[in-house]
Amino acid sequence: MTSPADTGVFDVRAVRADFPILDETVGDAPLVYLDSAATSQKPRVVLDAERAFLAHANAAVHRGAHTLAAEATESFEDARAAVAAFVGAAPENLVWVSWAPCGIRTHPPN
C-alpha cells in the first residue's frame, strides 16, 4: 500500500487498488465504504494471508497437541509479538479481542 511517507502525497487510487471490494460499484458510482466501526474491509495482502492460513494451517490455537495446532499457536504468538513490538508493548500485555454474538471473547496467552 502506498503511504504519504512514500510519496509525500496520499494516492487514493493506489489505496483503493489494495482493497478488492472497492472495485465494486453501487449503481453507477464506485463503492465507498464508511462503516469501518462495524466491519473493516481488508486489503489484498491480508486476504492472501488469511486464505493461506485457512488452506494450509487452520487449527485450534492453544487447544491441540497435534502438529497443526502447534504450528497455528506458533503463528498466533508470532503475530502477538510482532504487534506488541509495533506498538511498544510486551507480548504478554497484548490481548486479542473479538466480538461474538454471546459477548466478548478474549484470547490471552497461556
Automatic annotation (TrEMBL):
SUPFAM superfamilies: PLP-dependent transferases
Cofactor(s) this protein cannot do without: pyridoxal 5'-phosphate
Protein name: Aminotransferase class V domain-containing protein
Highest rank taxon of the organism: Bacteria
Organism: Microbacterium kribbense
Lineage of the organism: Bacteria, Bacillati, Actinomycetota, Actinomycetes, Micrococcales
Record-annotated membrane-spanning stretches: none
Keywords: Pyridoxal phosphate
Gene3D superfamilies xrefs: Aspartate Aminotransferase, domain 1 (3.90.1150.10), Type I PLP-dependent aspartate aminotransferase-like (Major domain) (3.40.640.10)
Occurrences of domain Aminotransferase class V (ranges): 32-101
